[in-house]
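Recap from last week: sequence in, structure out.
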Amino acid sequence: MTTEASSPRLAALLERVTPLHLLAWTLTLLVLPVVIITPLTLEQQLLLSGALFTAAMVANRFKGHFPSLVMMFLSVVVSARYMFWRLTETMYGFENPFNFVLAVGLVLVELYAFVVLVLGYVQTAWPLERKPVPLPADASLWPTVDVFIPTYNEPLAVVRSTVLAAQSIDWPPEKLRIHVLDDGRREEFRLFCEQAGVRHVTRSDNRHAKAGNINAALKNTDGEFVAIFDCDHIPTRSFLQIAMGWFGRDPKLSMVQLPHYFFSADPFERNLDTFGKVPNEGELFYGLIQDGNDLWNATFFCGSCAVLRRTALDDVGGVAVETVTEDAHTALKMHRKGYSTAYLALPQAAGLATESLSGHVGQRIRWARGMTQILRVDNPLLGKGLSWPQRLCYINAMLHFLYGLPRLVYLTAPLAYLFFGASIIHSSAAMIFAYALPHLLQANLTNSRIQGRFRYLLWNEIYEAVLAWYIFRPTLVALINPKLGSFNVTAKGGLIQQEYFDAQIAKASLFLMALNFLGMGAGLWRLTWVDDQNIATVWLNLAWTAYNLMMLGACAAAANESRQLRNAHRVTLSIPATLYRLDAPSMRCQTFDFSAGGLGIDLPTTVDIAQDTLVEVALYRGETEYRFPARVRFSGGQRLGLQFEPLTLAQERALVQCTTARADLWSMRWGNYPRVPIHRVLGRIMLISLTGFRDMFAHYGRAFTRRLRPAAGRPAGTLAKDPT
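Predicted structure tokens:
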């Protein structure tokens, strides 16, 4: 790795390390084991935990990275004390093999969580926050770039904007070549590409899916660099000028990855009404983890919104085809060969999120299976070419996708005592409280500080609870036989036309919910006859079960698919515009949102315009004005809703340049989430959970009513079943 180019922050940190720092850390590491393994009484443990938590609260009041490192260190100390206590003080004295097996299962899950916690701290210890590097002033020195847009079964309406935006990238035209890699071999795509002036590329088979599609195109192109966009990821005009500068600084740089930004709501955001209010599932990875990986020269290739050096790709045999996560595996191969990678946390492209929860689950299943396949066939802890920080970053990414079984264990663990009286943690409730609560509080406080802009506390537990059962099965199969399973394409551009409760996807959550409700009933029954020594244990398990029910209620809410009212997704945007009418003077105005099909504008004064009136609206790229024919669909006060009339290809391209391809459009929305206190997060999740219970009971109430009602007596227009 070239220290200057790949990790300037790491080099600066190493330069600031003095002998005094080394001495301090050495003494700390010598004392640390004593702090972790020293047995304490209940009162001493509570006192120590309180002191460490107070120190973390004080550190949290200061800004900067060093207080964050202090909080990580304190969190590891408290969690390590908890795990040492669990392994040495709570794993004996079981009355029967059943209790022992359950106890071993729980402690293994907790060990997994502890390892992932520590590795997560390593990954995110000091995000690099790399800045773009300017290109040479002489554009004739800029390299040639092939832009690949792979597609298989997506509709042309989704792909058009991406192609037109790629043509609008600010780069010398003779050095930019656009290729639509059409594995669907569709005639309408060929005609569109011919009309747009881009290359339509096909092949005779679909071997190795997307990876094979890209590799086939690599053999028939010769650009010095390759930019890859999923067919729904629309690049901004500045994409290449932002991404390419670092390649000139580092000759061993093989890839620059930029974030995946989504301008449509994913199923969680739409169904839970959190779009734009709560960071979504992927923002932690692109907002923090990839930036943290960059410090260690361990940035992953994510399959889209990236530029790769062709010579590096050729050196590793093209895009990896051994696993279904070809992108991350390709990056691993390049790192093994000694190449560096880079990450720029500046959204310069935006795409469509998955529309349905079932599609979202299918996408995550592929990711989980693929990362588990890499763990088996190309384990980063083994083999040559990687530094230890790189190995740890990769292994943590792979371990993350093994969360299915641990999450299922956490959702059912208290039931062992409530149903069977099985004490799987052989200790008093007071000691469990004294060790477990500080571990949880310290970890949550630390992660809240580190992840605050990109992940709110507890939300990851909802995501994982929904996906746990579906992730568990393919990862288990991939661990046993990594060759099983096939590549599945994530559908984009669909429309949820009717609200419905997806009982099929929610089936696992509903089963777990029923078990926890039964466990709650069993626990309340136990309160009527248990002796005084066990009553605290019952209450502890009841509290755990109540928390699980809250999470499972939120899972039910996520499965209630909300109706999608528009074919084209609206994006908030305020830019100058001009309204032209046949019977009145032109009027300067301001947009408030846009989509591929229309535009919303704010007028300076109230104007009465009849619905269906034909108008023209002008948008601007610099000083250049572009006019678009439109029809008034809504008129109210000083607001108009316009629907575009059919546009020429030149007008479509101009519309993309003025809207989705704007250089500043997505970056100004990136990570703009305020830090939210835990009580507000809990309150919101509790409300969502109650909504989930309501949706679930309503769904099954309707189903029960339909079964009771004779088919002949069913009113016309009544659905026989929900469209699950």
